[in-house]
């Protein structure tokens, strides 16, 4: 189960664009909490704490404890709006979590032991990571912060698919319910040496063709 992280918030009474601009100038971020049986609540969070939290992977894939004057609600971050070019968080959306309802969200993949794998130790091999995160489904109590991908046995030519991932208990990948065409590649170990060696051969063929073309007699113009 993923760890929870506390975010302190305050209730926000003013609404509208003007109120949001004033709030940002004062160093706060407007936000909203919705979902469950409770009505949506407008809140505000200190920008400094939000910005610090946003630099961590857990902020996007963990259950967060929103603390409003001692009242703690478990939520997930569902949307974050950033300024186009400034390091400013503009708005946040949080969704309340029901411990008895399955969640669907994307969690990051952590790749382990690539450097000690047969493919990682072979010259001329490129290991491509086709996915960096994946959508999972599980109850809140089973939510992992990330999924580990052990590459210690990866060999040249291997492809690791989503069906090969070792998932924690209670966690599944919803896409796999829809058949093999949804079993996507996660990691590919590809031999690049053949492509590099093919280029000189092609140049050699072109060089050999040039003298032959030069030796061929030129056709004389036909007299009319």
List keywords for this structure.
single chain; 224 residues; alpha+beta; 7-stranded mixed beta sheet; elongated; disordered C terminus
Q: Overview of this structure, please?
A:
The chain is an alpha+beta fold and 224 residues long. The chain is built from 4 helices and 13 strands. It has helices at residues 17-25, 47-54, 58-61, 193-215; strands at 5-8, 10-11, 28-34, 41-46, 64-68, 71-82, 89-96, 103-112, 125-129, 133-138, 147-150, 159-161, 185-191. A 7-stranded mixed beta sheet has the order 1-5-6-7-3-4-2. β3 and β4 form a beta hairpin.
Care to count the β-strands?
A: 13
Estimated structural class: alpha+beta
Q: Percent of residues in helical segments?
A: 10-25%
Order of helices and strands: EEHEEHHEEEEEEEEEH
Quick structural gist:
About 20% of the residues lie in helices and about 35% in strands.
What's the SSE blueprint?
Elements: E1 5-8, E2 10-11, H1 17-25, E3 28-34, E4 41-46, H2 47-54, H3 58-61, E5 64-68, E6 71-82, E7 89-96, E8 103-112, E9 125-129, E10 133-138, E11 147-150, E12 159-161, E13 185-191, H4 193-215
Parallel strand pairs: 1-5, 3-7, 8-11
Antiparallel strand pairs: 2-4, 3-4, 5-6, 6-7, 8-10, 9-13, 12-13
């Amino acid at each position: 189960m993923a760890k929870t992280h506390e975010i302190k918030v305050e209730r926000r009474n003013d609404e509208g664009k003007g109120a949001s601009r004033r709030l940002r100038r004062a160093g706060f971020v407007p936000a909203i909490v919705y979902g469950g049986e409770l009505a949506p609540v407008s809140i505000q969070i200190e920008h400094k704490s939000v910005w610090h939290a946003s630099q961590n992977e857990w902020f996007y894939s963990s259950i967060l404890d929103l603390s409003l004057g001692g009242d703690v609600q478990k939520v997930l971050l569902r949307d974050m709006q950033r300024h186009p070019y400034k390091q400013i968080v503009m708005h946040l959306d949080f969704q309340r979590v029901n411990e008895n309802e399955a969640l669907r969200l994307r969690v990051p993949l952590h790749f382990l032991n690539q450097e000690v794998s047969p493919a990682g130790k072979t010259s001329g091999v490129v290991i491509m990571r086709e996915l960096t995160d994946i959508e999972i489904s599980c109850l809140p109590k089973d939510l992992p912060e990330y999924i580990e991908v052990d590459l210690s046995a990866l060999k040249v030519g291997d492809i690791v698919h989503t069906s090969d991932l070792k998932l924690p208990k209670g966690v599944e990948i919803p896409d796999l319910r829809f058949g093999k065409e949804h079993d996507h590649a996660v990691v590919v170990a590809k031999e690049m040496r053949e492509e590099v060696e093919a280029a000189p051969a092609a140049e050699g063929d072109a060089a050999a063709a040039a003298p032959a073309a030069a030796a061929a007699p030129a056709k004389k113009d036909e007299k009319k």
